[in-house]
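Aggregate trends can hide what the representation actually does to any particular protein. This step matters because it turns folding into a mapping between discrete strings. For completeness, the protein is quoted in full, as a sequence line and a line of structure tokens:
=====
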Amino acid sequence: MLSGDERSVLRNWARRRSTAQGLAKRAMIVLARADGLSNAAVVARLETDRKTVRRWRMRFLAERLVVDS
């Protein structure tokens, strides 16, 4: 599902202290789903709701990464 470059960018967003919290959470959602966790497992791990996990997974699948140069 993820290319090496996408995984690298998402990991950086998830780990950097300067990343906005929302972006970091979205990155963690996509990474967790790519690692094979179910929506329910991601909900429990990240303390979010199913709608949020589903939304960001679908947006990522539709648009992939949008990175400003």
Q: What stands out?
A: The mean pLDDT is 91. DSSP finds four helices and no strands in the chain. The radius of gyration is 11 Å. Residues 4-63 form one domain.
